[in-house]
User: What shape does this take?
Amino acid sequence: MRTEGDSWDIVSSVGATALGVAVLRAGETRRADALFHDPYAGLLVMAVGSPVWTRLSAGAGDLEVSAMRSYGSLGDLLVARTCYFDSYFEAAAGAGIRQIVILAAGLDARAHRLDWPAGTTVFELDLPKVLQFKSSAFAEQGVTAAVERREVPVDLRGDWPAALRDNGFDQHKPTAWLAEGLLRYLPVDAQDRLFEHIVTLSAPGSRVAVNMTTAERAPGLRRTDAARQQVLAALDIEVDVDRLWYPTEGRSDPVQWFTAHGWTATRADPARVLIDRGRDVPDDVAADMRTHLLMTATRPGGDSTP
Ligand code: SAM
Assistant: This one.
C-alpha cells in the first residue's frame, strides 16, 4: 500500500518493480529471436546479491520460470514498450535532439546500450537509493556509459526541475523526455504536475513518450492471480504492481492532456509494435495489451520538428 512521501530502495516497494522489469528485459535478451538486447539488465539484477533474484534473471529453476509466466501479458507489454521507446529515442536523435531526460530511470540502461550521437547528454531521474544502487553496481563491474550520463536523485512527486537545471539541463534546447513505467505510481495530481513541468521545460521541437495502463488492474495479472500468489509465496518474493499503483479515477489521459497543450500526440497499439517486428501475439494477449497506452507527442516548432 502507498502513503504520501513513501520511499524505497531497489529491493522494496516500487523500487522492486524496477528489478522486475529488468528481469523481463534479461529474459528477452536471452531469446534466440530477441527483439532487443539489454546485456546490462541481468548484470544489474545479479548485483542485488539475492539468490532468488539471480535465479529469476537467469531464467533458472522451475519455480522461477513459473513466476515469470504468472505475470502473463505484462512480459509482452514490457518487450513492446522497450522496442517502442528505443525507436522513439532513435528518431529523436535522428531529428537532432541531443538532450535526453529519462524520468524514473530505475535500471534502464539506454544510456549504455543505445547508439547516441556525439554531444548527447542523458539525464536519469529516480529516488536517491535507486540511483545509488545502479551507479555502484556499474562501478563494481567497471561499466561506463558511452555518452554523458548525469544522475539526478529526486522524488518526481515533488519539485524536481531545480535539481535537473542544477545538473546542467538547458531548457532552451529541445529535449526528448521519457516516462516509462512511471505514471501509475504517481497520485493523479502528481501526474498532472509532472506533465506541467515537462511542458514548462520543453523548448520547441521537444518530444515526450509515456506508457500507462488505463485499466484498473495490470493487464497480465487478471487471469493469473492464484498461480502468481502461490509461486511468489514459495519464492518469498512479491512484486505486485496492483498494490503499488494509484487508481485511474480522475487521472488525465496523456494523449488528451498533451493535445490540449498544443502538442501533436500519436498513440500506438502495443500488440502491433510486436507484430510489426515479427512476433506472434495471440488474440487474447493482444486484447489484454490494448488496455495499455503507448504515446509519443511533439511540441511544434524548432529545428527538430520532423
Ligand atoms: N523506467 C524504468 C524501466 O522501465 O525499466 C523503471 C520502471 S519501474 C516499473 C518504476 C520506477 O519508477 C522505479 O525505478 C521507481 O523508483 C520510479 N519511481 C516511481 N515513483 C517515483 C517517484 N515519485 N520519484 C522518483 N522515482 C519514482
Summary: Residues 74-94 form the longest helix (21 residues). Residues 14-15, 17-18, 21, 104-108, 126-127, 130, 155-157, 180-182, 185 surround S-adenosylmethionine (CB under 6 Å).
